[in-house]
Design a protein that fits this description.
Length: about 90
């Protein structure tokens, strides 16, 4: 049985990297990424869709996260993610 194909899923994976690539090296919170992604796609992205796209990018090492001193999770694009954006 073939998996359901959702073009929005692919677009969101790319837009997550695009959002983080606006200022590589400068971290963004999940809320910031959601806001940027919604601006890029014209709105309508919910937090779970974003998290799914971020998880996919994380497992492919296109993005990474770390916690700051306040235990807030910050997100970065990796060199591999920047390279993937150039394809």
């Amino acid at each position: 049985m073939a998996a359901n194909f959702n073009p929005l899923t692919i677009i969101l994976r790319v837009k997550v990297r695009e959002a983080l690539n606006f200022s590589p090296g400068y971290p963004k919170t999940e809320a910031m990424v959601l806001q940027i992604v919604n601006q890029l796609v014209g709105g309508g992205v919910d937090i779970q869709e974003l998290r799914d796209a971020m998880e996919w990018n994380l497992t492919h090492r296109f993005i990474r996260s770390e916690k700051d001193d306040d235990k807030q999770v910050l997100w970065y694009i990796t060199e591999a993610g920047i390279a993937q954006q150039r394809i």
